[in-house]
Prior knowledge:
By secondary structure, this protein is α/β, with parallel strands linked by helices. It has helices spanning about 1-25, 35-40, 80-85, 90-100; strands spanning about 30-35, 50-65, 70-75, 105-110, 125-130, 135-145.
Amino acid sequence: MKNSKFLIGGLLIVAAVVYLIVSSTTASAEYFMTIEEVVTQQDEILGKSLRISGAVLGDSISYDEETLTISFTVAHVTGDNDEIESSGGLAKVLHDAVREEDTPRLNILYMGPMPDLLQHEAQAIMTGHIEADGIFYADELLLKCPTKYEEAVPDQSETE
Length: 160
């Protein structure tokens, strides 16, 4: 009798731990998507936590110092590292993404101080969600400066 009580108690504890792990994992799950995927699947992913990456269009950057609101547009960049390498590296891919007008684009809204690295052709990696208005509301904004990659494509800044 005593052993069965311990066994049942142990099983209940294990079941509770498994439930907590599963529920916290699904609640905090983020989907990594490309700009193209977000644009085409917008209705299915409304409000879901997403992580996206794109090339910043420099002339779209707008900053309100009073509200600390940053808005800008990003262009689609592939998430496939092999494709990036075969296309000439990240700097070239970012450069090409902002120049091609038919590349899918997405408007971003972020609240926070203006990052120094937010500039033309920077790679923006954002976590947030898209709303019905078609704007991606970023909670987190990470940037990779394109000048870090200019040595790989030295003629990039000369080509306009």
